[in-house]
Each structure stands twice: as C-alpha cells, then as structure tokens.
Design a protein that fits this description.
Distance between the termini: 61 Å
Mean pLDDT: 85
Structural class: alpha+beta
Largest sheet: 6 strands, antiparallel
Number of helices: 2
Strand order of the largest sheet: 1-2-3-10-5-8
Length: about 140
C-alpha cells in the first residue's frame, strides 16, 4: 500500500473516531421537544366557526405559546361541520379518513382520504362529512 493511501486511510479513521466521540459526548438538551399523546388531548366540542354538531378535537401543542403554528386534528361526526368562514391566514386541511364536502368560495368540492387543500387569506370555506360516517381532518395554520 502506498504511503499516500495509508495517510488518507489514517486521516479518515481519525475523522471517524473523532465524530463518534463527539456524537457520544453530545447529549440532547432538556426541553428540546414536546411529546403529546392523542388520548390526553381528546375534547368533545361543537364544530368550529359555528359549524355546530358534535366533533372531537385534538389541539396539539396548544399549551406552548412559543409554537408558531397550530397543529390540530378534528373528527367531524355526521351532522357537524367546520362552519363557512373567511380565511385570514394560510391554512391546510388534510383528510385523514372519510369523505367530506368542502365549500370553497361558494363552490362544493368532494374531499376524500389523502386529499389536502391550502386555503389562502381572503377565501371563504367550510367543511362537513359526506354521508353518515366520521370525517377526520388534520389542520395546520400559522398562529
């Protein structure tokens, strides 16, 4: 083996050892994460934006005022809805399960599991289950 290859190999091994040592010495900082569990967050409430009916809401990280966005799950039970309202900030709805009807600026749009919609400021929208099954939606927007 040439001396140049030995030098490169030696340097590579030293870098690897240094990296492994650094990795084992660095500890995660306390407070660097917030785990939350769905069953601890469950809250029965009427549909938001005066939607009415019965829904199950999960407000993740709602107690930490430093979080810059909302991250929520809402299960719309038959007969409930997220009421039709004017959007003031960008918001994303992602359909986790079920089928729904999104009313966007007066137009009805079918939504199903795996669909998502980005609503922009100045638009108006609402969402309800289609039929007699629950509609589970993940919602995120800037606080």
């Amino acid at each position: 083996m040439s001396s140049r290859i030995k030098a490169i190999l030696g340097s590579s091994i030293m870098l690897l050892i240094t990296g492994l040592l650094a990795f084992t010495l660095i500890k995660p900082q306390d407070g660097g994460y917030i785990p939350e569990h769905e069953n601890d967050l469950r809250k029965e409430e009427p549909g938001s934006h005066n939607g009415g009916g019965n829904t199950t809401a999960f407000s993740y990280f709602g107690n930490d005022k430093s979080v810059k966005f909302a991250f929520r799950k809402r299960i719309l039970h038959p007969g409930s809805s997220i009421g039709y309202h004017l959007q003031k900030k960008q918001e994303i709805y992602y359909i986790l399960s079920g089928n729904g009807i999104l009313t966007m600026n007066g137009k009805e749009i079918s939504m199903k599991t795996g669909d998502a919609v980005l609503t922009k400021p100045g638009s108006s929208h609402g969402l309800k289950p289609a039929g007699n099954e629950d509609l589970a939606v993940l919602i995120t927007y800037e606080n």
